[in-house]
Specification:
alpha+beta, D-amino Acid Aminotransferase, Chain A, domain 1
């Protein structure tokens, strides 16, 4: 129903006083067969006027919840530059996992600050990032074994997060890897390499 140009997620923190902090929006690239996120690039490449729309809409959505917390607002940018809200998540979220390594204050640090009434954290980027979701390989179900893990751990500025799930099955999200680099081409190269190498099998 929507002619989607890009899918964007915006993480927003809001405290008891109504003060807000915005993380840079991320661009989401999906596996359309599984309807699961494959890659997530931060910061998203957006025109300035589109960025302003994304931020303004995300802030309006969050303020209408009338609750402190951290929120993921997922949006479509259509081919005419319109920004449409697709989904909201009132919690730490897959859309913010890259912040663990790539930002001064991660989404988890930010949530603790909100809960404890501390000042909101610094959402600035330490370095651009791409996140790769690690998804159960086709044709494998059972006790998980990670093929290619040792090779991936040798990659500079790649941070592996496995979720401790003992069983794998096709399409099951098993973890993610965040890669940091100042060069977009390097991010894309390393992320496709990791997607090919790191396979949850049984």
């Amino acid at each position: 129903m929507v002619n989607i140009h890009k899918e964007i997620a915006q993480m927003v923190a809001i405290n008891e006083k109504g003060e807000t902090a915005l993380y840079p929006p991320v661009e989401m690239l999906f596996n359309h067969q599984l309807n699961l996120l494959d890659f997530q690039l931060c910061p998203a490449e957006l025109e300035q006027k589109t960025l302003w729309k994304v931020e303004a809409i995300a802030l309006a959505v969050v303020r209408n919840f009338k609750s402190p917390g951290i929120f993921a607002i997922e949006m479509f940018v259509d081919s005419d530059g319109n920004v449409l809200v697709n989904e909201t998540a009132p919690r730490v979220h897959n859309s913010g996992h890259h912040t663990i390594e790539a930002h001064y204050s991660s989404q988890f640090d930010m949530l603790w600050r909100i809960i404890l009434g501390y000042p909101l954290g610094n959402t600035e980027v330490i370095m651009p990032s791409i996140m790769v979701n690690i998804i159960g390989a086709e044709g494998f179900s059972g006790d998980v074994k990670y093929e290619g893990l040792e090779e991936v751990l040798k990659i500079e500025n790649a941070f592996v997060h496995l979720y401790g799930k003992k069983q794998t099955k096709p399409g099951r999200k098993m973890g993610h890897v965040t890669i940091l680099s100042k060069e977009k081409q390097e991010l894309i190269h390393q992320s496709t390499k990791i997607k090919r190498l790191l396979l949850p099998k049984a």
